[in-house]
Every structure is written in structure tokens, then in C-alpha cells.
User: Which sequence fits this backbone?
């Protein structure tokens, strides 16, 4: 199978883990004929997030490493929450991440087979139709400390159950009136074995089967049997399903299926300053706390993509965090560092002034006289595209009398150790010349509005022949050539590292969402206008990433750009600035 993750992620960083060891052991023992077939089984009820990337990288990675295959299977058994929009976005995201599924399946394709197998269980006396309403059904189930009680309908004959189940399917009963349950053990210490529900009555339009069905299989009934149908060898899921495994195996045994997939559980990814649950992400979207599933602050794959993340960085992140048996929370900084490490190697450097201040070179020569009088003298200076990658070459950048520098690179009154521009101080303009500040002007509020400098013509390229030292090097953009742009800077969506008390999840019985919304960061997005970019940026295309020198990594957001006013999204700052912000907030004063 095709797996770019295998070729361009650093293989040295790949550690083995208990899942890989397990698969290796099964192969060595000749289990499943040494075959490896995994699957990634999302429910199409939302967009994929970075947690899903961990599962995708694991499932597709195993297939690639062991010469096996990996399916994409939509676990579409909850018609009320599922949608084709999600099916499409999930396929796009898996491909974008760099993986091509070997097979594309839908659990709904198996509805007929699953139904036939349910009938088989009834015939074997291993399933029955139960008339207990939801509330009572729960109550009969008991608790973790108290055993459950047998349903009064448990003793129905196979013939009666078959007839009732047929009438359930035929739509003779209202929604929720009856269920089909496996007959296992109401006293089992494992709640999942206390006669779990296989089918419920639900009149909902299914995104693929329409109104053909009014009974739908539960996750537990559909999942393992779908695995078996596809010939999955290793069914990898997150830890919440560990105590569903006995049920998973009970079904396979009860059906006497020849092929028995092995369920293996691993720890789900939790990330600081983020929520990773589709339900909560859906709330953020529905309630308008973000602009959509692909809001650049979202931990969704489409959000991260729009933010400027590369598939390579996400795969690198997944390799670095590894796969473990115990839940833990990964620091967001690790995700950001994976992007920095990836882009540092390959993102072209450009100069961009985000908060501009005008600089005028007093001794800059007049230009040659042209048709319209004396033109401005312009020099095109050579700039290095990527110091980390000599093969990236150089480009030329125009330089003239009037320049933009960063507002914070000048101070009218500055301490001794301020190495940037201040009256009387000499600095280097990167790739250009040394300049010395001779004066400045202020606006009505007293803020600097223009800085005057003199340049040293002998320092062209940014080095002085007399080896005169300057400590500050500033980036700049020629005012006459600048591309006007907007820059969007995002911070964490949440102010708290752990916005949800418990990061549960899973298909049923997940803990209720805490009020994670109380921790939203009100300053998570800031858009700067009037930014000045070097003119080469006019050719920027979406999905290209750039390093704005001294700022961070940016990419064009075509959707929010306006004609003549491109918008660049910051993917990540050069260094972790959040730690500093937190420190400042805690410091007195
Ligand atoms: P959510 O709670 O976000 O809806 P889910 O588990 O219900 O997550 P599914 O669409 O059912 O989402 O998940 C598809 C696969 O991705 C499953 O195998 C699931 O275990 C895995 N997965 C989901 N979230 C994570 C996570 N945070 N870390 C690792 N794997 C995950
Ligand atoms: Mg789910």
C-alpha cells in the first residue's frame, strides 16, 4: 500500500510499541496466515481531529510496516447524527494526511448481514426481544456494585422472538418500544455483558439507506461483526473499549465465525488547550464560538490544515508521541514543535513587517532622471531563501529610500541593552546595509511616526569591510514595493490547559460534557491590517508555507483574502510565546 509517512518521516524516530510487538508476535506465530489487515473506523458525525490522526497513523502505519492493508470504514449506525458532508470531509482528510485506503466500506452496507446474524442468535436462544422502556432497561441493568435483574421478557421462546423481531423490522412498533438484546449474564461484573442491546427502533433517515430501515444495530453489535466481514486481523481502538472486548469476543464465538479479529486497545490522544471530542467540537461550531469546523483555531485536521500545518508535521507528531496503554495528556507545544521542525527545514524565508513604521534614508542617492523626472534609486539585493537548505537558493529583494520596519524595532528612549534602532545607534538591515538613526518624528499622540537614518554604502549585503560590529539585525520591506496584506494571529482557543475535567469519549455512556466553554480564550484571534510584505509574496499560493523572518510560519488563507488584500495566517510563532504570556500574567504589576 501507499504510505508516504513511511518515506519522508524520519524512521529513526519510530519506536516500537506494544501494538506493533503484538502484531509482530501474531505474524511470527502464523496467526491469520501472517496477514495484517487493519481499519480506521470513524463515525461520520463530525470532522476528524488530531486524535483521529493518531489512530490513522497507527492503523495505516501498521499496514505499511507489515506489508498489510488498511481499510477506511464508516461506522454509520447512528442515522440521526450522521451526514454525507462528514463522509466527504473524512475521506479528504485521510488522503490529505497522506494515506490511501485499500478498501472503502460502510457499516450500513452490512445491515442485511448483521440482521441475518441477529436472527441466527435468536434461533440459537442467544437473543431476545425485550419490551422494557429505556428507563427501566437501564434500571434492570444494575450498577457497578449491584448485579442486574433478568428482564421479564428474557424467557420468550425463539419462535416468539423471531416473530417480534420481524415485526420490529416491519415497523409495527413505535420508536423505542422494544429492543433486541443478547442473552448473556445479568449478574456479570462487566456491565457490557448484562444483556446488551443489539437493535433499537428508530425512525430516522439514514444518509445512505434512507428510510429502508427502522431498526438500527448498536455500535457493539455492528463493530466486531463488520471487522469479521472484512477479514480485519487487528481491530485497534481506544481504551474506553477495553471492557467491551469480552462482548466483542462473545459475539464472534456465538456466531461461530471462522475468522476472529483481535481487538487491541491503546490510549487516546489528549492535548492541552484543546478539546478532542466531536460532540464538543460540534458545539463550538453550532454555537458560533468558531467560524466552522475548519476554523484555524480548531484541532480538526481541516482546521490545522487551514492554520498552516503540513501532513508531514502531523505524522511526525504522531510518531513522536508514540502509542501507549495509559491515558495521558500531550502538551500542545509538542504539536507546535513538530511543525516548527518540519517547516524550519523547508519553508522559504521572506521578510514581512506586520506592524509597520516608516524609515527614511537621508543620504540615499537620487535615482536616474526618467521620463517623469528623477526616479527613485532602487537596488535589488540578494537574500537567502533558506539558510537550512542551500539548494533553496536566493532571490532578490528591492531596497530604496523609504522602508518599513517593525514598530517594536524602534524606541525613542531605550535602555542600554536595546540593540535595535534608537537615536544614535547603528543596526544592520538584513541583506542590505548598516544604518544609523539620526532622528525621528512623532504623531499627535507622541508615538514615533517616522525614523530618519543614514546608511553606510560600504556595508552593502549587510557586512562592514572594517568588521564594525552591530548587535541588532532588522528585517524590512521597501515602501515603494511593499505588498499590502493582513495577518491573522491565533492563540489557544482555551485559556485553561485542561478545559474539560474529564476527556472521556466513546460511543455510549461517555461522561457529560463539563462546561468547557467557560474556559474559552476571548483573545484567541487577532487580525492585523496594513502589514507590508516583500513583493515576491504576491505570488504566494494556498498550502505554501513561509517563514516570515523573526515572526513565525505563515500561509495564505485564500478564503479570507480580498482582492488586492491577501490574508496570511500564522501557523505557529518561531518560539513558544504562550509560556511567556502566562508568566507575564502571573507576575505582579
Ligand atoms: P469522538 O469522541 O471525538 O467522537 P470517537 O471515538 O467517537 O471520538 P470515532 O469516529 O468513532 O470517534 O473514531 C474513529 C477512530 O478514531 C476510533 O478507532 C477511535 O478510537 C479513534 N479515536 C477517536 N478519538 C481519538 C483520540 N483522541 N486519540 C486516538 N484515537 C482516537
Ligand atoms: Mg464516537
Assistant:
Amino acid at each position: 500500500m501507499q504510505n508516504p509517512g513511511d518515506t519522508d518521516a524520519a524512521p529513526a524516530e519510530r519506536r516500537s510499541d506494544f501494538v506493533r510487538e503484538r502484531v509482530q508476535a501474531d505474524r511470527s506465530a502464523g496467526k491469520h496466515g501472517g496477514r495484517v489487515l487493519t481499519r480506521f473506523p470513524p463515525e461520520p458525525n463530525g470532522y476528524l481531529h488530531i486524535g483521529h490522526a493518531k489512530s490513522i497513523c497507527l492503523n495505516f502505519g501498521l499496514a505499511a510496516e507489515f506489508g498489510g492493508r488498511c481499510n477506511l470504514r464508516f461506522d454509520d449506525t447512528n442515522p440521526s447524527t450522521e451526514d454525507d458532508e462528514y463522509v466527504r470531509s473524512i475521506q479528504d482528510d485521510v488522503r490529505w494526511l497522506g494515506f490511501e485506503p485499500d478498501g472503502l466500506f460502510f457499516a450500513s452496507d452490512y445491515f442485511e448481514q448483521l440482521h441475518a446474524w441477529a436472527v441466527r442468535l435468536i434461533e440459537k436462544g442467544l437473543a431476545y426481544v425485550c419490551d422494557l422502556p429505556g428507563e427501566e432497561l437501564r434500571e434492570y441493568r444494575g450498577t457497578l456494585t449491584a448485579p442486574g435483574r433478568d428482564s421479564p421478557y428474557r424467557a420468550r421462546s425463539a419462535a416468539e422472538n423471531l416473530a417480534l423481531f420481524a415485526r420490529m423490522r416491519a415497523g409495527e412498533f413505535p420508536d423505542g418500544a422494544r429492543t433486541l438484546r443478547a442473552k448473556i449474564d445479568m449478574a456479570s461484573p462487566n456491565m457490557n455483558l448484562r444483556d446488551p442491546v443489539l437493535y433499537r427502533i428508530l425512525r430516522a433517515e439514514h444518509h445512505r439507506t434512507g428510510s429502508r430501515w427502522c431498526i438500527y444495530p448498536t455500535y457493539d453489535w455492528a463493530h466486531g461483526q463488520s471487522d469479521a466481514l472484512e477479514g480485519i486481523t487487528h481491530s485497534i481502538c481506544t481504551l474506553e473499549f477495553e471492557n467491551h472486548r469480552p462482548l466483542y469476543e462473545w459475539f464472534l464465538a456465538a456466531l461461530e465465525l471462522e475468522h476472529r479479529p483481535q481487538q487491541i486497545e491503546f490510549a487516546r490522544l489528549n492535548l492541552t488547550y484543546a478539546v478532542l471530542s466531536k460532540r464538543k467540537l460540534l458545539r463550538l461550531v453550532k454555537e458560533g464560538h468558531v467560524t466552522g469546523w475548519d476554523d484555524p483555531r480548531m484541532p480538526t485536521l481541516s482546521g490545522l490544515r487551514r492554520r498552516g500545518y503540513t501532513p508531514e508535521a502531523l505524522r511526525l507528531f504522531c510518531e513522536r508521541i508514540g502509542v501507549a496503554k495509559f491515558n495521558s495528556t500531550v502538551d500542545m507545544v509538542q504539536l507546535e514543535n513538530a511543525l516548527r521542525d518540519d517547516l524550519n527545514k523547508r519553508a522559504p524565508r521572506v521578510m514581512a513587517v506586520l506592524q509597520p513604521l516608516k524609515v527614511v534614508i537621508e543620504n540615499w542617492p537620487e535615482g536616474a532622471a526618467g521620463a517623469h523626472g528623477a526616479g527613485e534609486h532602487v537596488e535589488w539585493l540578494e537574500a537567502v531563501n533558506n539558510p537550512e537548505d542551500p539548494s533553496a537558493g536566493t532571490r532578490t529583494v528591492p531596497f530604496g529610500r523609504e522602508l518599513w520596519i517593525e514598530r517594536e524595532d524602534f524606541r525613542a528612549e531605550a535602555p542600554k541593552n536595546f540593540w535595535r534602532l534608537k537615536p544614535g545607534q547603528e543596526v544592520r538591515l538584513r541583506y542590505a546595509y548598516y544604518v544609523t538613526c539620526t532622528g525621528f518624528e512623532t504623531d499627535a499622540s507622541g508615538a514615533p511616526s517616522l525614523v530618519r537614518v543614514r546608511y553606510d554604502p560600504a556595508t552593502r549585503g549587510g557586512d562592514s569591510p572594517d568588521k564594525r560590529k552591530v548587535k541588532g539585525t532588522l528585517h524590512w520591506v521597501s515602501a515603494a514595493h511593499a505588498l499590502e496584506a493582513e495577518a491573522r494571529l491565533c492563540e489557544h482557543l482555551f485559556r485553561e490547559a485542561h478545559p474539560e475535567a474529564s476527556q472521556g469519549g466513546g460511543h455510549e455512556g461517555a461522561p457529560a460534557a463539563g462546561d468547557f466553554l467557560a474556559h474559552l480564550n476571548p483573545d484567541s484571534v487577532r487580525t492585523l491590517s496594513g502589514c507590508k510584505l516583500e513583493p515576491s509574496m504576491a505570488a504566494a499560493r494556498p498550502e505554501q508555507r513561509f517563514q516570515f523572518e523573526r515572526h513565525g510560519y505563515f500561509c495564505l488563507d485564500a478564503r479570507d483574502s480580498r482582492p488586492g488584500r491577501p490574508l496570511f495566517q500564522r501557523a505557529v510563532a518561531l518560539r513558544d510565546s504562550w509560556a511567556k504570556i502566562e508568566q507575564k500574567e502571573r507576575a505582579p504589576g
Notes: The chain has a mean pLDDT of 93. The chain has three domains: 4-271, 272-346+483-533+540-584, 351-482. Residues 4-271 form a domain with the Rossmann fold fold (CATH 3.40.50.620). The longest helix spans residues 50-65.
